[in-house]
Structures
1.
Amino acid sequence: MARSTSCSRWVPLFLLFIARLVFAAVEDGPLVNGDFEKVPSNGFSGVGDGPVSIPDWNTNGTVELVESGEKQGGMILIVPQGVHAVRLGNDAEISQDIKLEKGSIYSVTFSAARTCAQLESLNVSVPPASQTIDLQTLYSVQGWDSYAWAFQADSEDGHLVFRNPGMEDDPTCGPIIDDIAIKKIFTPDKPKDNVVINGDFEEGPWMFKNGSLGVLLPTNLDEETSSLPGWIVESNRAVRYIDVNHFSVPQGKRAIELLSGKEGIISQMVETTPKKEYSLSFSLGHAGDSCQLPLAVMAFAGDQAQNIHYLPMANETFATTNLTFTAKAERTRVAFYSVYYNTRTDDHSSLCGPVVDDIRVWALSGAKRNSSGVLTLVLVLLVLALL
Ligand SMILES: [Ca+2]
């Protein structure tokens, strides 16, 4: 009797264990055949001759596997990574089912290239979440770029869809996509003595080890659903998330490179106490990507704005700047954009700009008052003890 009771106690636990195995959410990293290098059932031989079935993906409309070096109308098609990628024709889509943790925030990283001169865009969705990303502006001379898009999982069964919403006259004009990965985003706790969340930018979207172009973060006004926790990209154009493996980064492994002058703005609303004095400090530097000088940012804290130039120094890739402001409200906007519209010295068409990192905001007057308050209390207690 006792044995059957203990057995029945274990059964639900066992079922829960099995259920967790069955419903294991997708792991951080590349999706299954996210690089489109898995050989299709009829081989890669049919590539270039029209639609083929793509392992692990569902397709709808004219979806083609393209090969690097393949030509179209005299133009060599760009494959961002490896040898193969997919091209989406007019209104065509590819999709894959992914298991998610309901309520969690995920970020999808992918690479995309344009094929024709026309305006191209790409719709990325995990219904009901969806965003159309503009590929019109090329940020690098390579002709492709990596992007990140974040969403909140509405259920455990996610359906990731990439769709070309275009209706071009030439049906072969459509974006090429490649290298798709996913990462569950976690929002770091607010650090001590600093009201900025993720001010060091260490938490962000998935980055490929060989991804030498960084990851573009397009416009995102929803701070709850951001590939860069705590921050929003409140401008029309993207900012670039960079890593220490391919760029100069002031602190830790990740930072933000601001692009496109005031068309690329990151910001965060931080908690403040009205009338209190605060200090804003941050690192400002170059990314080590041959960006044409001068580099400068406009830094905002509440109604204060300051233009700060990066002064190149030997052996240093960045400098730390400090400015003070008085909070006017319980929430204060901290924001940055590049003062100039910089390009690289070696190709004049790749966008680049100043790097910001290690952003901190802390109360000045409050800290002083607190420490003197503690001192007074200790003195009073000492006097009482002596009496
Ligand atoms: Ca950092």
2.
Amino acid sequence: MGNRIPHGIPMTICNHKGGSGKTTTACNLSAGLARLDFKTLLVDIDPQANATITFLDRSIIDIHLGHVFLGFQSESGQFMRHPFENAIYETAIPNLDLAASNLSLSKLNRIIDSSDIIELYYAVKEARKEYDFIIIDTPPNLGPLLDMALLASNYYIIPIEAAYYPLEGVSDLDETIGKIRRIHKETLLLLGALVTRFDQRTKICGQAYSTVAETFGDKAYETVIRNNTKLVTAPAINQSIYEHAPTSYGAEDYSNFVKETLGRLKIAVDGRSLIAVR
Ligand SMILES: Nc1ncnc2c1ncn2[C@@H]1O[C@H](COP(=O)(O)OP(=O)(O)O)[C@@H](O)[C@H]1O
Ligand SMILES: [Mg+2]
């Protein structure tokens, strides 16, 4: 199965504000697409590796994206780089593979050559032949790793925590996106802004949603991700929300988010048979 979309769709989940729900969204979007039979690759380029350890046991990861983008010294003393596919692992979820991160990737923020930021684009270009979706989880800062992800993507999604000043820093992100668009890629599109960690009981959350809706117009997702502790506990047992707590708010909200995402991409979902219309 898989590969019903002629060229896999790469998208970045980004917001350099930490705690905005990027990793939770990247993991449950990827798992949600995989559940619908889309062959999905989750690429973790955050050195904190939270998405990686959500779905993989650390002990099985011998090759990671640090070995791909930074290179390493072989036993014979030669400097080498692993090809991207060597850092890809199957997860326990059918149709979901993961390109593993490692703390060493943080070095890339300091030493990367501007010509190297294109490397992920080339890797993703190849992966698009294999996968229907490539979802990239990014670090909580602006820098070369985020540039790499955006450059490799056709779309980006901004998760925004329902909190005071929800848009703090979003203008800096806009600047980064503008730069990537101008220099490299005209076609990088915002798929939507997603409000996360929403608590219906607080006024602040309602105000945060209004601010996001006013700012992003129809790019604001109608789906809102409510606060749900099951979303916090699922990664600890290497599960997505759909296995961990299928009847929770978290599972309901992320399923709706996956459907809305497919709708925005004009990919029709008809029960379990999926028709790509673009
Ligand atoms: N909808 C939610 N309800 C409750 N907790 C959440 C929700 N979304 C994320 N969290 C928790 O908030 C913290 C930050 O979320 P995370 O997805 O890691 O954000 P980021 O990747 O942007 O730093 C994590 O502990 C996560 O489990
Ligand atoms: Mg994260």
